[in-house]
Amino acid sequence: MNPLLDQLQPYPFEKLRMLFSDVTPNAAYKPISLGIGEPKHPTPAFIKQALADNLDGLASYPSTAGSEALRKAIAGWLERRYSLPALDATTQILPVSGSREALFALAQTVVDPSDRSALVMCPNPFYQIYEGAAYLSGAQPYFVNSDPDRNFAPDYGSVPEDVWARVKLLYLCSPGNPTGAVLTLDDWKELFALSDRYGFVIAADECYSEIYFKPEAPLGSLEAAYRLGRHDFPRLITFSSLSKRSNVPGMRSGFVAGDAAVLKKFLLYRTYHGAAMSPSVQSASIAAWSDETHVAENRAKYITKFQQVTPVLQEVLDVALPDAGFYLWAKVDKYTTLSDVDFAKRLYAEYNVTVLPGSYLARDAHGTNPGQQRIRMALVAEVTECLEAAQRIVRFVRGLKN
């Protein structure tokens, strides 16, 4: 067996399952889960129809590079969304079977397995795929803690030069999971300068980009690069997905875009990896990327939800409206000394509400775990259910105070 597999930690939801294994939740309440970031809004009918209308595609082997029509649809969306000039749909865009598998696979392309000193840099807290990708590429993860005083941006200025010299790949998530923070143009300028100096590839995970609460849409990595004069996107690969944007997580449809030289090698890897997208899913994806009406309607649901739920939770938790995304990243120590793990366990037992302990989404690094005393709440259900969960959390915390 591959010994690198032994370095993988249980996924956060497996830890949560083990935490709850000896708990019988209060049967007086119906279960409400804010634990898993799985979109719950209905899939738009026109996307389902596009899939159903193209089932003949199941009779054909898919191309790893995807159809020209899909690549052009993605290019058109990128150009409209980020005010970019025409992208080369052949060399700068590659459809993938969801951003998750591509985020993992990129490390296998970028990291030299013979380099035993290689590092893969990750934000902390983070999406656990980044860590697993690092280990299975033969590298080690290096965590940079998010700083609440910097809108949860990782403090890259704290990283020693000898560490930067070993970094081959840097993962980041903007809007962030779990913090919801969006990188600024100055943040990107700093990262691009570091990439130029040390030669590492940047993997920009942007799967939450279309759920936001301000009038202006979040800045994207390709957009930032172009505005800073980096028109060929050197050493930059952006990842996006239809899962959250269009409520189709089961379709497993996304794309990567950016540096043509990196994508050429990535396509070679994926040709052997075998994760090509079904022609039927490609047809439905073209329909989804070509329409913005359903995206605006979906975003409006989240805006309503967050505007109603956040003030309720602010009565007992240290929590604020994020820049974007569908998570609330709340501190639980406003009125209680419970740890984030104990908070989640007792809330589940007493009120049948599931939240994810923040420490499950982070690692001990540089003397601290930045997820401690925090919980992540995914507001993915309809507004009435999320409000009911918030009201239960308020009653739970107030009970702890008495």
UniProtKB/TrEMBL annotation:
GO molecular function: pyridoxal phosphate binding; succinyldiaminopimelate transaminase activity
Cofactor(s) needed: pyridoxal 5'-phosphate
UniProt keywords, alphabetically: Aminotransferase, Transferase
EC number: 2.6.1.17
Entry-linked Pfam families: Aminotran_1_2
InterPro entries named among the record's database cross-references: Aminotransferase_I/II_large, DapC_beta/gammaproteobac, LL-DAP_aminotransferase, PyrdxlP-dep_Trfase, PyrdxlP-dep_Trfase_major, PyrdxlP-dep_Trfase_small
Domain Aminotransferase class I/classII large: 31-381
Biological processes, Gene Ontology terms: lysine biosynthetic process via diaminopimelate
Entry-linked NCBIfam families: DapC_gpp
Name of the protein this chain belongs to: N-succinyldiaminopimelate aminotransferase
Organism field: Glaciimonas immobilis
